[in-house]
Amino acid sequence: MTEEPFQFFSLTALRTTRPSPSFVRVTFGGDDVARLASGGRDQRVKLFLPRPGQNAPVMPGPDDGHWWAAWRALDPDVRGVMRTYTVRDLRREPQELDIDFAVHEVAPGSDEGPATRWALNAGSGDRVGVLAPIHEENVAYDFRPPDGTDWILLTGDESALPAVAGILESLPPGTPAHVWIALQHASDRWELSTKADAHLTWLVQDESAPATEEAIRAADLPDGTPYAWLAGESATVKAVRRHLVGELGFDRAAVRFTGYWRRGTSEDELLRSGEDA
Ligand SMILES: Cc1cc2nc3c(=O)[nH]c(=O)nc-3n(C[C@H](O)[C@H](O)[C@H](O)COP(=O)(O)OP(=O)(O)OC[C@H]3O[C@@H](n4cnc5c(N)ncnc54)[C@H](O)[C@@H]3O)c2cc1C
Asked: What is the pTM of this model?
């Protein structure tokens, strides 16, 4: 039997910190951390959270076959709440995994999503599950600039800031990088560490910053072959991609784009609409 490249692991929250007011960093430990791998700096994992009344999420077992079919076969009212997050850091000594949760505000009167709620209340000893790769080379990361790339363009919002921070940390010294991050609040501007030649623009909504595609339209971009990585709210990602491929003539294959969330829609609703399509 071939080994499944993605497997379920159990993690235990060790501690939480606040990198800035709208973020909770949860550091996880547990014996399983040693077995999971992380490849690119936008490595995504599926997180499984317990439902009210459970002290650990209900997940498929190791012999239940392909994860998607196994998870779907579980009772939807009982199985763990599934959400997608980025590995912010994976350390080996000690074995620890960090995930940065943007603790978003939702419309007045409605509750925040379950992952946000979980992160805001997380404490030492809380248990979650994660579906993660067992090999560094895996299909669950996208930032892969090809040889011949002259410069990098990155866009995101709070949900993509953990990935953008990791990508910037990983860029070779001197790489030209143009980066736009949309934030609701100026207090969430992080000190980003990079050896790249990075031109970083924070688009703070509280300060009436322009939309990301407008900011790019007004920018002086370098010549040469670009590679773009776009993530964040779906409509914004689409608008930026349209601008890059349409008006600026970027090669489609050189624009990696992922909607990380959709306004007014939970991840469960997104999954259901994908299944119905
Ligand atoms: C590949 C990938 C990697 C991701 N990595 C991260 C990460 O590292 N950190 C992170 O914080 N998020 C990340 N996200 C986004 C995260 O999965 C979503 O924000 C998710 O919807 C949060 O779940 P929830 O239970 O809090 O809200 P849900 O129950 O899914 O949604 C509840 C409500 O909140 C709104 N909402 C959801 N997310 C946001 C947001 N960011 N800002 C404002 N409103 C929102 C929804 O539109 C909905 O109305 C990633 C997504 C993907 C696809």
From this structure: 0.96
